[in-house]
Amino acid sequence: MVKEKKIMKNKISVLPIVFILITICFLSGFTTVQAGPKKIISVPSGPSTGDTCELIQFYGDYLFGWGEPVTYEWDFDYDGCPINFTVDNSSENPEWSFNLGKTYTVALRVTDCMEEWDIGMLDINITATYDLQIFRINVNDTIQGEIAEFNGTVINYGNESSPSYTVYTYLCKFNWSSFGWEFYCDVDNEEFDPLTGNGSMRDFDPDDRRMNESGSYRLYAEIKVDGVTVDVDYKFFSVN
Q1: Residue 45 backbone phi and psi in degrees, to 5
Q2: Which of 199, 186, 190, 177 is nearest to 222 (CA)?
Q3: At 34, is the pLDDT very low, low, confident or very high (cuts 50, 70, 90)?
Q4: Residue 201: other Cβ atoms inside 10 A
Q5: Where in the chain is the domain with CATH 2.60.40.10?
Q6: pTM given for the model
Q7: What's the fold here for domain 41-127?
């Protein structure tokens, strides 16, 4: 009887060892399982500087993901909010030009075959290549009934491939209303052929105005490329 109890005790003492061995084998089996793909990461690249109206090349790439097919979508003026992402181009390596002299955030959204996506960004500082200046010829206040005379200059710092531009001039009068001071403007339209060469300059001559009403005025001018304003200038004057 004593011998049987001793044998049973030995059997029971072996159980914890067996359990430990089984656990080790079970866990080591899991270590041999291959992990799935990591989430796709967008990797855009391109220059950090450029000029207005210059055609600039960008390159799309990615890391990880579930594989092809991968779609590329570009937003060339991204505001940082994914819900506002605007698809300007869907090529892998697009070319793009910018109209305004400022820093743009360029964003690339890549999407893999499992609809996983990511947005990568880069900044590019664009230098304005157009300079618009208007000048008042008769710099003193104009007498009612006299002519207000102006001239202007457009300087293009671009190259021979610079696109054509349009200069618009507006003569605006301050009027008081229930909403406060407001501008009332007329519009002139001056159109020019494309400029060529570095530092090219072109003068323009807004129509002279005979000022039949006294008051405060502003001559405003803007230069547009492909309908986008790239520079402005203005002058205030009074008619007595």
Answers
A1: -150, 155
A2: 190
A3: very low
A4: 11
A5: 41-127, 130-239
A6: 0.55
A7: Immunoglobulin-like (2.60.40)
